[in-house]
Write a structure and sequence with these properties.
The protein has five helices and two strands; from the N terminus they run ααααβαβ. The protein is mainly alpha-helical and 103 residues long.
């Protein structure tokens, strides 16, 4: 889902460009994101993740839908979620999270 968020952000930025220079910058960012994900595995939002997502929505109704999808994928894949958003993801007790941006 992080991929989805990043692509949506890039496309949103692109749609708001007004100059050729801004368009060039926006397309360069989109291309960089696409190249980066050639080397990063994208974990699936599959049926088990969808079921887990439904459970999380009931258990943590105040968290954002996209965050809950990300958490559901991490949980069913038994993966550690790398995030700077420890305030939201940290309340999901069964979720393993790490913040690698802290020195």
């Amino acid at each position: 889902m992080l991929y989805e968020e990043q692509i949506r952000g890039r496309l949103s930025f692109l749609s708001q460009t007004k100059t050729i220079e801004q368009q060039i910058i926006a397309y360069k960012g989109l291309q960089t994101t696409a190249k980066d994900y050639c080397h990063i595995p994208i974990l699936p939002f599959d049926y088990p993740a969808a079921i887990e997502h439904q459970h999380l929505r009931k258990t943590y109704p105040r968290l954002g839908n996209m965050d809950l999808k990300i958490a559901a994928i991490a949980l069913v894949q038994n993966a550690t979620l790398l995030t700077c958003n420890q305030s939201d993801f940290g309340i999901i007790q069964e979720l393993s999270i790490e913040n690698w941006s802290i020195n």
